Structure formats: structure tokens, C-alpha cells
Amino acid sequence: MLELRLVQGGLLKKVLESLKDLVNDANFDCSASGFSLQAMDSSHVALVALLLRSEGFEHYRCDRNLSLGMNLNNMAKMLKCAANDDIVTIKADDASDSVTFMFESPNQDKIADFEMKLMDIDSEHLGIPEAEFQAIVRMPSAEFARICKDLSTIGDTVVISVTKEGVKFSTRGDIGTANIVCRQNPSIDKPEEATIIEMEEPVSLTFALRYMNSFTKATPLANQVTISLSADLPVVVEYRVAEMGYIRFYLAPKIEE
Amino acid sequence: AGAQLLLSRYFQLN
Q1: Do A127 and B13 touch (CB under 8 A)?
Q2: Beta carbons of A128 and B11 less than 8 Å apart
Q3: B9: nearest CA in chain A?
Q4: Would you call A45 and B4 a contact, using CB atoms and an 8 Å cutoff?
Q5: What integer is the mean pLDDT of A38-46?
């Protein structure tokens, strides 16, 4: 028996909106510690890891570990039927081939339940070691989204370079080139507008903008995004999900042929 | 522009 009640149901709507274009089908893993997901995109270039800790739910019952295979597009369709301020409850029986999403309005005058068929999904679970990064950039998520969107009108790839001067996003295309430099800005009065760069050593990596733009679908979840870079690792683009967890996108770089 | 690396280059399948 699984029963997860999330007062901030809007968070789950935003999580699904940020996942559904990258991954079609995925297993949600439910355990005593939380509700999580790890899935690769179909080309095995990008990976998303989601964690919503059990403490973040108003009520969290998970009698035994369960893996719920879901089509994320269909799940997103159902969650779109919830209002942003609805309380969302996810329910599933151990042997069931379906999951129920229950939506309650804040004043309890409307209650809806949507049942969705589950799928059997052969998922490939990757071991992701804890890593030390050469550079970690924290910046406003909306700014990062804007940069990725702007650069993708000019080129297909972005070079992200971190030096002690700041973080530089560069692209090149048929019509020309573009460089955007963001300098460190602690913004003590408005921490959500800060750009903080922690650099062990300079690093420069190239990534496909198509994936970066897909990751920025998570922008409504968090004011800040963290971009962790190392020369010998995929980049990690992380958005915090309120106080309860995170959504992390991993993207393998491109190299000169 | 350039070759796209795969995640399997970095992460092992569990």
C-alpha cells in the first residue's frame, strides 16, 4: 500500500512539466525514504534524477518498496487537471496495475480522482558516484533559461567556461557568434538574484543546447539553479524542489571530432 | 559540431 499526500500539489505538476519532454516512460521508486526517479533520455545522452523526501509529504505511507512504471506524458496530462493550489494524493495498492491521483481543493469543496494505468518498464539504473567538481555556479534559474533560449537562436551548442572572472556561455552558428559573461554577484539583499561561483580550477565544456533548453523547463520550481562542471564528468544542472528534494539533470558533453 | 558523448562513458549500469 502506497499513499503519499502532498499539500503543495503544484510542485508535482511543475516536476512533471520539467520531465515529460526529456523522458517518455519511467519508473517512480517509492521507499520509506522518499519518492524518486532516475531515467535517461532515449539517446542515452541525458539523465534526470528526482528525489522527493518522505518528510516533505504531509502523509507518507509506503509499506514496501514499490516501482510504479508510468508514461510521463500521461501522468502530466492527469496532473494538469489539478489546480495549482490543490492537495495531491498518490495512491497505489501493492499488486495493482494502476495508480490513483486524488486532487482536493484547499477548502475541501472539490475532490477528484484520476486513475492511470501503470506500465512495465525495463529501466536501466546507472550508478552515479558522488563527485568533486572543478567549478560550481549558482545563478538565477530564469537568467540561465534566458541565456540558453537566446543562444539556441544562434547556435546548436553552448560552451560553458568558468574562470575567476565569471562564467561565460558562448555559441557559434551560421549567422555569427555570441558570448554572455555572468560575473559573481553575491546580491545580499536579494539572494535569489545572486550569482555565486565556486571554482577549484578553470573548466570549459561544450554541450548541446537542445538538452539544456529542455532542462530549463524546471525553472518554475526554483529561483536558483546550480551548474556543476568537471572536465571528466557530465554537467549536473540542479533545481531544488522546495525543501523536500531536487531534480538533477546530467548531460554528457560534446567533444571535437 | 563535435561528437556527442554518451552517459555510459561515465556511469556504470547497476
Answers
A1: yes
A2: yes
A3: A252
A4: yes
A5: 95
pLDDT (tens digit per residue) in A184-193: 999 889 999 9
Between CA A16 and CA A159 the distance in angstroms is 28
HEC string of chain A equals CEEEEECCHHHHHHHHHHHCCCCCEEEEEEECCEEEEEEECCCCCEEEEEEEEHHHCCEEEECCCEEEEEEHHHHHHHHHCCCCCCEEEEEECCCCCEEEEEEECCCCCCEEEEEEECCCCCCCCEECCCCCCCEEEEEEHHHHHHHHHHHHCCCCEEEEEEECCEEEEEEEECCEEEEEEECCECCCCCHHHCEEEEECCCEEEEEEHHHHHHHHHHHHHCCEEEEEECCCCCEEEEEEECCCEEEEEEECCEECC
- Decide: A243 and A11 in contact? Cβ < 8 Å: no
- Who among A252, A254, A256 is closest to B10 (CB)? A252
Could you say which residues from 111 to 140 on chain A have a Cβ atom under 8 Å away from some Cβ of chain B? 124-128
pLDDT, residue B1, reads: 65
Facing A208 at nearest CB: one of B4, B6, B11: B4
Q: ipTM of the predicted structure?
A: 0.94
